[in-house]
Design goal:
With 394 residues, the protein is of the alpha+beta class. 25% of the residues lie in helices and 27% in strands. It has two domains: 3-241, Vaccinia Virus protein VP39 (Rossmann fold), CATH 3.40.50; 257-357, 2-Layer Sandwich (Double Stranded RNA Binding Domain), CATH 3.30.160. It has helices at 3-19, 25-33, 64-71, 102-112, 129-138, 150-163, 198-202, 285-294, 344-357, and strands at 43-48, 51-54, 58-59, 77-81, 95-99, 120-123, 143-147, 168-171, 184-189, 204-214, 222-228, 234-241, 271-275, 298-304, 310-316, 322-327, 334-339, 366-370, 377-380. The structure holds S-adenosylmethionine.
Length: 394
């Protein structure tokens, strides 16, 4: 790649983001002042937009041109696997830190609706790029960012200082917020949650805005924009789909399949049936979200067969019941097995049917209210239209 092409990278990405209408004119100056390349580390595993996959590792020190091209693509970039335990050339198990997709970065900043003088708390410093963008717009003293991983936090401080910014980078558990510098006018999380921590609400001023990726155990996730009222209640709508890494403390280690059934003995004692609802239909990200909200203790795994065939396994976190649905290409009826006191496929089907009957609403029609404790309610169109529970815990 020639020097000219290299210089065009940031401009090309700016044009793309402006065309997509995610980079607004009020964030353009920050984008231009804060080059992403100053924050992305030497070793990266570039992701693909809208796809849950990563390419092999690229080292800047070995392949500077490929590295530079990846940095100025509108795609997420994994920068750490397995909390730093894996550093090899392929993929680790869990992507534990990243530079988020630029479209997502600027959509979330836009939703944050910052005003001059606002004090901001960010949870999930990562590379420090987002913190630098906010520090450019609001000034270093108005930005506090919390990162749980010591090495990542240290690297972010170095990136920030090299770029000329000095927001407060706290090494700690962002699920506790950061009380010392509260109250905040805006809180942004770049790690996803299943429960909005009560500390975030407690450290926010009335009228403050929280922007955070939120998703149930089953899967599906969207960015929610909540406003805090005088009584400490947070409420608002989802602005679109997302796929962030979970806040470390809210990562759930789900029970192993063998605790439910030995897969070799399938179908064991299960009750068999046929269904016309395709396992493929229930696998859309938004359908998963709608199912997960209605059956909060449900989770799934998939085992793959030949020629596109797969088995969808359903389990409950209380380890009482399991079910399978077998997908075969070209079929209109699918075999179901269900075991235990609950009929998990039927619960899932009821949840899917509810979503279907509502006209298959997208994320933007859903909203979330949280009274400041560990409980939440998800609603459709209006807070007085809560999404029903089809069963499951709490
Ligand atoms: C998607 S990355 C952040 C991207 C970042 N904002 C940027 O501009 O590069 C999510 C980050 O959240 C961090 N994280 C996870 N759990 C956390 C917690 N409880 N408190 C603070 N940070 C956390 C991860 O270590 C990871 O670095």
């Amino acid at each position: 790649m020639s020097q000219t092409t290299k210089d065009a990278g940031p401009d090309r990405l700016a044009t793309e983001l402006l065309d997509k209408k995610v980079l607004t004119s009020d964030w353009l100056a920050a984008y231009r002042a804060v080059p992403r390349e100053l924050f992305v580390p030497d070793a990266i595993w570039p992701g693909r937009a809208g796809m849950n996959r990563q390419d092999d590792r690229i080292l800047r020190s070995e392949s500077p041109n490929m590295w530079f091209e990846a940095v100025y693509r509108d795609a997420p970039i994994t920068t750490q696997w397995d909390d730093g335990q894996y550093t090899g050339p392929k993929k680790g198990n869990i992507a534990s830190s990243s530079s988020s997709m630029p479209t997502m970065v600027f959509s979330m900043l836009d939703a944050l609706d910052v005003q001059p003088g606002n004090r901001i708390l960010e949870i999930g410093t990562g590379t420090g790029w987002n913190a630098a963008l906010m520090a450019h717009r609001l000034g270093d003293p108005n930005v506090v960012t919390v990162e749980v991983d010591k090495t990542i936090a240290e690297e972010a401080r170095e990136h920030l200082s090299a770029a000329g910014y000095r927001p407060l980078v706290v090494t700690g558990d962002g699920s506790l917020g950061y009380g010392k510098e509260s109250p905040y006018d805006r809180i942004i999380s770049t790690a996803s949650v299943q429960t909005i921590p009560s500390q975030w609400i407690g450290q926010a001023r009335p009228g403050a805005i929280i922007v955070a990726p939120w998703g149930p155990t089953y899967g599906g996730e969207g960015v929610v924009r909540l406003t805090i009222d005088d009584g400490g209640r947070a409420e608002g709508t989802f602005i679109g789909s997302s796929a962030f890494m979970r806040l470390r403390q809210q990562r759930r280690s789900l029970p192993a399949t063998e605790r439910f059934v030995d897969p070799q003995t399938w179908p064991a004692e299960a009750e068999m049936a046929m269904t016309t609802l395709s396992p493929d239909d229930v696998g859309d990200w938004i359908a998963m979200f709608a199912i997960g909200v209605q059956v909060p203790d449900l989770f799934c795994r998939v085992t793959y067969g030949e020629e596109g065939a797969y088995r969808l396994w359903l389990f409950d976190t209380g380890v009482t019941s399991w079910a399978t649905a077998d997908f075969l290409k070209g079929r209109t009826e699918f075999q179901i097995a269900q075991a235990g006191p609950r009929r998990l496929w039927e619960e899932l089907a009821a949840a899917y049917t509810w979503w279907d009957i509502q006209g298959r609403p997208s994320f933007e029609r859903f909203g979330l209210s949280t009274p400041g404790g560990p409980f939440y309610s998800v609603w459709l169109d209006s807070p007085d239209n809560p999404v029903p529970r089809q069963s499951g815990e709490g």
